[in-house]
Amino acid sequence: MNTKVLFAIAAGLVLSTTNVSAQATDCATTASIAYEHAKVKNYDAAEEPLWKVRKECPTHSVATFQFGKKLLESKYKKAAAGEKTALANDMIALWKERLQYFPAKTKVGDMHSDIGQIMYDNKIGTKDSQFAEFDKAYKEDKTNFKRPKKLYTYFSLLVDLQSEGKKELQDVFTLYDDITEKIEDEESKKAKKIATLTEKEESGATLSSKEKRSLKNNGINLKAFSQVKGGINQKLGELADCKNLIPLYNGQFEGKKTDINWLKGAAGRMSAKECTEDPLFFRLVEALHKADPSAKSAYYLGILALKDKKTTKALEYFNQSAQLETKASDKAKVYFRIGEVMKKKGSYGKARSYYKKALANKPSLGTAYLRIASMVAKSANNCGADVFSKRAVYWLAANYANKGAKVDPSLKKTAAAAAANYKAKAPSKTDIFNNPGITSVKIGCWIGETVKVPKL
């Protein structure tokens, strides 16, 4: 090879390297300009350089797609109705490009559920294609599929497809159980944080600004999950009523009577909908206990014992169920049921201990707080030493009712009404003035708690 040829090749390599280096420098500069504008939400200035980086050097940084998403979301919020579909398609394209260039930094659950919601909101594609996005997100990355609105849309689409004959009723029940469990897990996490911070606040400690934000945000999110759970139950509607469950499960029983998961689901749904009077429920429980003696079968046997007014036997089954149960939310359900039995018997102290065990396993179970509040209020005359302390019992009842509202926003109105009723019966401002020096009241009998005198 002669010298001229070698020189030409070398020159070409140098030029190529120089061009690549220059392009990389240009990308970095353009990206820096775009990101700085996007950070302060100056999207008008950020748009041109950001899309230039996206087109010419998409692998430069995942930040291109992160800021691009925020930019498009901002435009979408401000856009007229006729402009939203085009922007929605832009967002879908952006998500797919991010997955293409940064698969390790893209959460499949977040991406596909986001795409599904965008499609649903803008009537893009069919219900089948919209559902497919949510289904992929949920089945492949359930952890990152947790936005309340998306969970509702996913379930709503399935119910719609079932009504069109494209999905089986059993598919609806299966997803309902799974999503409800996921929502309740999220509710418990948030309710636990709320309960912890509320107790700290009630003890007289000052919450930090970070803790105050956490208390507020967890309250907002808990309310959203509570609303979605209510929406999902409403969407399920009559599909899960006894009139549909009984013929469905009667038809499936012979072929499924050794399928433990099916038996658990069928018995659980019939129990939840109070279809326990039908002979099918006994057959389900009997088959379940035979196939897999467990916490679930013991619980259902307890229900049947209660039905036959065999309270002692029912409590034996319920306590056995609670000991065997490994799932926190189901353990809470068993403890709550025992609490209900004890409350009905008038054993308030035992009932409270079981309600509290239920709350320890499911902190969002606000109904348990309302039950305790009710028992405390009913015991005012028996547990107070004098007129003032007897009426002070109602402050404690009100405190329990308020706790119920904090951990379960769906109970807000009911809890507020109960708390107001209890406070009306508690000592007035004049009563407090006439009993100077009393800052707290120790309440006796089964209650055994001390309540602070509030500043009225």
Portion of residues within helices: over 70%
Order of helices and strands: HHHHHHHHHHHHHHHHHHHHHEE
Strand content: under 5%
Structural class: mainly alpha
Main β-sheet, in a few words?
A: 2 strands, antiparallel
Morphology call: flat
Low-pLDDT parts are 5-20
Termini separation comes to: 100 Å
Strand order of the largest sheet: 1-2
What integer is the average pLDDT?
A: 91
Please tally the β strands and state the result: 2
Report Rg: 30 Å
Number of helices: 21
What does it look like?
There is one protein chain. The protein is mainly alpha-helical. Among the domains are: 1-106, no CATH class; 365-456, no CATH class. Helices cover 76% and strands 1% of the residues. It is built from 21 helices and two strands. The chain has helices spanning 3-39, 43-56, 63-78, 84-101, 108-121, 127-140, 148-163, 169-202, 209-236, 242-256, 260-272, 279-291, 295-307, 311-324, 328-345, 348-361, 366-378, 380-383, 387-407, 412-425, 429-433, and strands at 440-442, 450-452. The chain has a two-stranded antiparallel sheet with strand order 1-2. Helix 11 (260-272) packs antiparallel against helix 12 and helix 15 (328-345) runs antiparallel to helix 16. The longest helix has 37 residues, at 3-39. The radius of gyration is 30 Å and the shape is flat. Mean pLDDT is 91; it is low at 5-20.
